[in-house]
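Changelog excerpt

This revision adds worked examples to the README so contributors can see how folded entries look when concatenated. The first example is reproduced verbatim below.
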Amino acid sequence: MARRDKFTWTAMIVGFAINGQGKEALDMLSDILRASIAPDDQPIAHYGCMVDLLGRAGHLTEALAVIKKMPMEPNSIVWGALLGACRVHKNVTKFGTEGVTYFYN
């Protein structure tokens, strides 16, 4: 990439994620963090977007892995993105349990 800033990095991550390439999206996020580029002014929003995109693509395992590796406490937006994807893909029991627990605590 000739121009490397948070906008081009985010475009690449979104491109990977919406095309079902969750591993590549997560690898790109790791590259951003290694390059010391702030992925967004609101990092939790960036993670929520990643969880949402991976979940929509049906990559629930990867979406949960993103949540578990977040450097901050996931909020209701992040957990809601996972639960929404679990509902769509009819897999609430396996992946949604931790999200439901978050909302009840």
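The second example, added in the same revision:
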Amino acid sequence: MDTSDIREAASLGGETLRLKNYNRQLASLRKQTPFGQTPSRRRISLNSPLQENADPQKIAFLLHKQWTLYSLTPMYRFSHDNFKEYSRLLNAFIAAEKQKGVAVEVGKELNFRVTFSALLGMKGTQRDPGAFLVQILSKFQTSSKPAEDRVVWTGWFCCTSGDSLLESITEDFTCLPLFLANGAESNTAIVGTWFQRTFDCNFSRLKISALNLSWMAALWSASSLDHHMVPLEFLWSVPCSPHSLDISYSIHPDDAQALWNHVHKTLEEITQEEVDLFIDCLCSHFHRHFKIHLTATRLVRVSTAIASAHTDGKIKILNSKYLTGVLALLTELAIAEIQ
């Protein structure tokens, strides 16, 4: 069976998961979780509303784009009051880097410009530092229209519900551990180098483990979206020679919600045990139909109506209602990476 056959056949559509068949499996699944770790707990806070000062245009700009994730150590003597100066300095640095080290006068007219701006409304707690946006805009001109600026690269820095790290740093440091970039990797590298040299910080790619992808699937399935009937989708990778095989598995949102309600027992938090049961039940359902053990493969992507995440550290956020909840989870992962 080739990949397309598996993808088409695995889509459950409107078929209802046979929950009664799972009842018999729950006892044994509690003893055989796929990750073999001591159960942990996370509180459910995905639908925390954006603050009233959020800019709808900027929030809309962040949605439906693929962002590459990075963790960032605290920045030394960074100030939200110096955005104009930072723009001028980063402008000159980028120009110098693109001209292979040739000195560029600060303030010289260039065919691009850098902007820093506040990204309001995404704090999880009052202690969180303000998020901010960095953009590179390049001038485009056609024969029929005057020159206009177009965004060619965007990066944003945030800390949503980052109390665990904020408690341990001094006033000289600003903690924005989550960085998301969209655009050419060469621009990301140049901007990252400038920040590292200017604020004595360090960027690292933030990968998402299969375990955390499973958490995302469970958390996002637990949050119902009344007007978004988008399936829960998984992508598993099967290592084989000469080419790897990908298996796509799609579950109708009503079926995913019904299964989650069946395994989820507490209202305010989710346990590792519940996440394991949720994934194991889905894998058992797949095996019953196709005789393929997904537990022998590697989970690489999860997609829902809320967001889509890939193990290589890429995410696409799809719904503003759950933006702060998604950022809180990503902030938690970023903090764990740098601590």
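Reviewer comment on example two: Residues 210-311 form one domain. DSSP finds eleven helices and 15 strands in the chain.
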